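#struct-help
A.M.: can someone run this one for me? Single chain, 445 residues.
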Amino acid sequence: MKLTILGGGGFRVPLVYRALLTDRGEGRVTEVVLHDLDAGRLHAVARVLAEQASATGDAPRVTATTDLDEALRGADFVFSAIRVGGLEGRADDERVALAEGVLGQETVGAGGIAYGLRTVPVAVDIARRVARLAPDAWVINFTNPAGLVTEAMSRHLGDRVIGICDSPVGLGRRIARVLGADPKQAWIDYVGLNHLGWVRGLRVAGRDELPRLLADPALLGSFEEGKLFGADWLRSLGAIPNEYLHYYYFNREAVRSYQQAERTRGAFLRDQQARFYAEVGNRGTSALELWDRTRAEREATYMAENRETAGAGERDADDLSGGYEKVALALMRAIARDERTTLILNVRNRHTLAALDPDAVIEVPCLVDASGAHPVAVDPLPGHATGLVCSVKAVEREVLAAAESGSRATAVKAFALHPLVDSVNVARRLVEGYRAVHPGLDYLK
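D.P.: on it. Structure tokens below:
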């Protein structure tokens, strides 16, 4: 079985390959094709993968190419993890937004909109190529903003594109661990959009254990989200929000913390990865050991400004293990082998959330089998959550419309309608600021 990884020179690709090395049996991936526009990064990642494979017999064969059509042709699965504009683009997204006093995070607020406007045209082109060159392939999208990009691709690939994210997985795992439950045996009642969802229940043997957590201040304060949001706010919500909702519930504090930081997250990753790719070519250096050290630093500093704002301290060691690669492998196994499972995924709504239309991509538990991912019926969200979901989905639709039409006015509308921008004048300056630093936004007229 052939797996094509788009963004194959990306830093997190070895996580996916490491998961593949643990997979055995019929229907496993035997060929991995890495595609990237940067041949140097491809070579560096290929070195890491070669060292990973050296300790494993019968490892999937790895090839690399800068030719997109060659990479896609004949693929059974396509894993998309591209970054249009690179980490320099992400740093620019943050810088332009913070200069206007608004959030520049890569999936939330102004930064997410800018990233989406750059990425959607490229993702749509990929979707069209997949439909032409590998019509039977399943596309697993991890490219951010994951929900928005998955929806853009679904207009050309239908249900054969599925978005994944490790945030809900990590959240469910942390809640189960605090409650003394096995995450594999727990049903996580999670619903929302990508990076905008809530855990409303965690059922073990048919019993909802979340009320027990919400009633215990000590338990609530013992894990990442409890430290981040505070026990009182979680009890008020009656749910555990995805960590990215910290940008909404504590927006002013988050913006101030990011403005005061020595470097933004994007700038930190840009500099860190530049060192990695430069050093990995040194003779005598173990590419895998260098990658492991760099990854540990990356994970430990994740959302550091938010944790500082909340006084949450360091991340727990158990939270540094990632997870999206495990979701990707479980998804591929379920489809390729009909190993039925339940995963939290980004899929078309159909009739799951009545407040949204059937084609809106949402993030919910899905039953997965050989025919794809099928969203599970969920209870309606409370009013405050429904309002936020509908508001952000409306912004996503304006981003898609701007990317399709090339309309600068529609792009301004997308920024202005976002609840974390809320100013037409700021929206206009953001569009002009992003067009000045991103050649990929020249299409906005």
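A.M.: thanks! The chain has 20 helices and 13 strands.
D.P.: also worth noting: The CA atoms of residues 20 and 29 lie 7 Å apart.
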